Write the structure tokens for this entry.
Amino acid sequence: MDTHEMMANWDAWAKSDPMWAILTDPTKKGGQWNPEEFFHSGQAFVDDRMVWLRQQGINFQPNAKALDFGCGLGRLTQALGKYFAETHGVDISEEMIKQARQLNRMGGRVIYHHNPHHNLQLFAEATFDLIFSFIVLQHIPCRFQKDYLTDFLRVLKPGGVALFQCVHALGWRAWLPDEWVDLWRRHRSGGAPIIPMYGLPKQALAKICTRHGGVIIHDQAHHSEEVPRFISVEYLIRKEQKGNLG
């Protein structure tokens, strides 16, 4: 997939079944998500991760800014708005962003951006104290994951952190080019929108951190029988203070 295909795919989901596409509970397919329940699940998740960050000794100033990367309808963005003076949500789907703005309950504390690019060029260097992203990078081709992760470290303030999840492919799936998988998925779907999975090599993430001043301070793997060819890993990465950059 290129960025235009990604945009078209997620715009199609936004118009057909956006909440299920974001949080794929098998009992909620076909518009069965209750919006209150959907957004409550996001608040519960963010509350849990913010408690965990405090346990790691990571605290934020009252004027801190957060970025929710791959925000969709703002399920996690609005939840982050409880903790930050300013929270920005960014997504490749213009239709998702349109709906997120309509659903926003946080006023000016939450700002949404449509980003059709495979980078974060719309944000200046050293803008955010926290970057937050879950069940997003796994749906982005590896070459673009690398671009976004590189820009995570550019737009983080020195000393800021990125808390995110991505997947690593296992076995034969790790050797299969994304382009081949895309061809097979297009054939199988018959043109309907899909929810693709792309595993980023662990060494690629480590290389990005080394080159751009990121330090992995936590990683936790989770394996699910539902996706046996991938392992999901939650990462916490801190951007080095300028004086510590090699």
The chain has eight helices and seven strands. The CA atoms of residues 66 and 175 lie 35 Å apart.
